[in-house]
Amino acid sequence: NEGVTLKLDCPLQGPLTQIFTGPGSVIFAKGVIDKAYPQWWGAKGNNKGDDTRAIQAAMDAFPTGGVVSFPSGTYRTSEALKFYSGLTLLGPAKIRCITAADAIIESYNPEARSGGLRIKEISFNGRALNGDRSKIGINFTNVCSSSLEDVGISYCLTGMMIDGPIFSGYNSLMRMSIGGCKVGIEFKNSAIKTTLMGSNIGAVETGILVTTSNELDIFGLSIEGFSSVGIDVLRGDTIHMQHVYFANGAESGTGIRIAEQVSDCTIVQPRYSRVAVPIDNQSPKPLILATGF
Question: Can you point out the beta strands (E) in 52-190?
Answer without folding.
Answer: 66-69, 74-77, 81-83, 87-97, 103-107, 114-115, 118-125, 134-141, 143-144, 147-149, 152-154, 156-163, 169-174, 177-179, 183-188
